[in-house]
Amino acid sequence: MSKYAFLFPGQGAQAPGMIKDVAESSSAAKKVIDDFSSIVNVDMAKLLWDTDADTLSRSDNSQIAITAASLAIMAALKEKGIEPSCAMGFSLGEFPALYAAGVLSFEDVANVVRQRGLIMQAVCEEIAAANEGHAPGMSAIIGLPPEKVKEIASSIPDAYAANMNSVKQTVISGTFDALTAAEKAATEAGARRALRLKVAGPFHSPLMQKAAEGFEKVLSGVTFNDPKIHLFSNVTGKEVSKGEDAKKAAVLHLTHPVLWTDEEAVLASIIQSEGGAENWAVLEPGPGKVLTGLWGQTEFGATIAATPVNSKESLDSLA
Q1: 137-142 and 193-196 as β-strands: parallel, antiparallel, unpaired?
Q2: Active-site residue flag, 91
Q3: Which of 32, 185, 219, 262 is the most buried (most CB within 10 A)?
């Protein structure tokens, strides 16, 4: 392959022990984990490999863990001569994508994600406290058209359609009670499944406005360079060509839906216009394989395969 598109996963992809075999087999990946630890002042090896699932799911832990894991795999891919011509990230995954595109430096992406996780976790705990300790979150509605899910969410206070994952799956954000009501309504409307996700808050919804305001202050002194490769935004569902636009989107990102299906369509059109499927590979560098699955549900998934890269075995399988 002459060109690669990297899809970076978001919160919910974390799992105890993730990418340990990659760090043990790649000096470049190990260096990323060590350097990341020094910048954020957290023992990332311990967090990644010796933390239970519940602790790891907290925003202040999962965001740095997933980002470090994705950057480590990207470093291991670079050792093999594999670098992206396109980068797009799902939710949190936009930050590894910003690094891959040269928009943020390694140190800035580590620091920014650390602060983002702390801010979002604090806001989530405030929302839970205001709801008798019931934690807010997100639910994936599977088997209903996106339009129907949007209709259900709009009819329930504090419920919002947050992630446009695929034609078969839309995610709702909300308070605990709002999600319970939305899940019941979706099931009654014919949804095949309503699944509460392993995330700590109602991301990509107006409930995160306070977090967005805090995060905007964090970014005020951070330089966002213009991207050096194709880069996409969850907020617009389109390509981003200016660093300043990426910076504005990073703030809006917290309160606006993820337009993932729109981004996938734009990526597919770029692949077709720049050599076609035979010259491209779509890789998912990071824990899990959620984005590979979503890509497979698209009309382009049948002709342009996506491959998760989350282990030594998956790295070794690449040319």
Answers
A1: antiparallel
A2: yes
A3: 32
Instruction: Specify whether 253 is catalytic.
Output: no
Over residues 79-91, the pLDDT tens digits come to 999 999 999 999 9
The model scores a pTM over 0.90: yes
Q: Which of 37, 204, 205, 253 is catalytic?
A: 204
The catalytically annotated residue of 37, 70, 85, 91 is: 91
